[in-house]
Design brief:
The protein is α/β, with parallel strands linked by helices. It is built from 8 helices and 6 strands.
Length: 249
Amino acid sequence: MKVCCFRVFVKEVLWDCIFIVKHIQNYDFFTTVYDVPFRVSAELQSLQFPSNEIDPLLMNGNCLEQVIKIMEQSAYFRKLLVRKMNTITSVDNNNITISVQDINLVEPKKYRLPYTWCNIYEKTDLEYRELENIMAWLSTLGGAFSSLGDQTEHCAIVAGKISIQQLKIALRIGDPITVARCKLYLAISLMQRGQFNTAKSIVKEQYFFVRSQTVIDERLIKMCYGIWCKLRYEKNKYYSIKSKIKKTA
């Protein structure tokens, strides 16, 4: 078995180790000593201090990143590196030969930035901020129609439509707490239109969902309590008026 160790130094301090282990016909790649087989890793403990007589390679971070990627992807490249490293640093009783090459990491003249990822992040961040802005406007508008929904069914219907739009945006953002809040807004609209059973199911579902979270949102819990009390009041009021109409008919 042969082990090729690439020790990476930053300002003469050991920063990381990269290993290629040749076993029979396999050339395995490891980025940490803890992933290397145990009987090999025990021998590698002696490599913690620089004692290599070969001049170290000077390499910047951009180049090292590409070398590591090629090592991970190409078994042929790993095989070539093992053949090139003929200098044997140590041999233990198990005939494990270890070759070492030091790499001194230097600062590049120009840093290579992941522009593609930066563009994706910028677009995502802009979209998120715009969605948050739209959500704020819809909350204001929906609150106004919801307050009028107790007297006018048309306003309750409009408030329900706004809640559905808010729900779509919350699903797009991916915030489950905001999704739960939008569903509670929808429950208020349904309650104002006399759909008490559907509103009841939504409130109960969101209450148990919030209670199941690791971090419980107390404001949402109180919101569920408030809507539940309003639901009971509106339901009793509705059936009380309905019974009076039947008696007078």
